[in-house]
Amino acid sequence: xxxxxxxxxxxxxxxxxxxxxxxxxxxxxYMPDRVYTATPPSAFVTRxxxxxxxxxxxxx
Length: 60
Hints:
Layout: H1 3-30, H2 43-48
């Protein structure tokens, strides 16, 4: 493998990693404003998140 091709692959690897990180950072900053604003929670989620929920068998 030539040194030129190896350095080109290294540049592609680093730039792809940086792009991947920036994309995830942008999504993490954007999603808290958008998630669960249009749909209310289902009946199951409401019941499970209730403070008196006892678990499946009442053991928890």
